[in-house]
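Structure representation.

___
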Amino acid sequence: MNEQPRAVVIGAGIGGLTTAIGLHESGWSVTVLERAASLEPVGAGIGLAPNAQRALDVLNLGERVRALASWQGQGGMRTPNGRWLVRTSAAEAEKTYGGTLVTLHRATLVDLLVAALPDDTLRTGTSARLADPGAPDRRAVVATDDGDIEADFVVGADGIDSAVRAALFPAHPGPAYAGFTAWRFVIPAPEKPFTPHETWGRGGVWGTHPLKDGRVYAYATARLPEGGSAPDDEKAELLRRFADWHDPIPGLIAAVRPEAILRNDVRYLATPLAAFHRGRVALVGDAAHAMTPSLGQGGNQAIEDGVVLAHHAAPGGDLAAGLAAYSAARIPRTTEIVRRAARASRVTHLTSRPLIAVRDTMAATASRLGPNLIMRGFASIADWSPPQAPYAAGTATGAAARTARAPGHEPAQR
């Protein structure tokens, strides 16, 4: 009897876990190696757009994510004094993209992904290093403290500072500082209802979004030198910068504990990789194409990567050809999204008051010309569909995707 081909995934983030599920369902024997002792819940949220939801349909997880949607009414973009620049709604998003944004806690998504894997798949507290990327005539080798692991296929899902990427492409310059810092936290929702919003100020952004479980995900960004920290604590820093912005922002800052606030400098891969693979190894997520959060697509693109990679890297097939097809499918799309996110970051972090006035006027004018005019600019990202028909049946998104495809036809990667 032939031995089941073995795949090793280095990193148990969203991209690594999604890839592991796809590979497992394709017939690979999968091991996920995570250096952290446990998958501790990170105090931050994530927004899953319709493109990521369709990718999760392939893994039969899309409907479970859609059930966590909390955005039902209005939303939009505001100025610090509370004036609405852009108003939209969940119904308009559904009409434009074929689905709405689902915001959930990252820990909730990670738990959902881990539960879809066999119990013995995930090994935490295991540092892993790519010792040999392999070749068509030899297996790849992953070194761990418990010994070397030979694998038919290795996936580098080890984040923005990926050691796997550095081993595959040592000449690549790595991540660059985007020019701003981000704060994130999740707390119980305030008693007074609020409308989900992102607020654009001078050199900074604030976002507030409800979660299905009764909590609120809040994030903020500001132009700052790299490597800094608050002289006292991060709550005090947020108060200095955002306490005079519109409700519910001051109340949210007042309610959060300083130790519950995450602060991270925002970095991204300004120089795109020429390929997402080498030998028997492929990269997914931030290891391949880390981007700024301005379009909310980092985790979404990692999920897309996992589903597309599993589609092309079928066990028993020509792995080299499959990995080349994966790179060809993903590099143009992710490179463009990285660039668009970087451009959006520059727009939302303007410090010139005249330029801010022009920005806000243009956004408000576009909103008045059509309620979903601005949303259409995001459509080329959100309308992506995976290369195989979703397993989920009976959903509007799945039905639309199936209707748009001829039987046996693989849609083009957008």
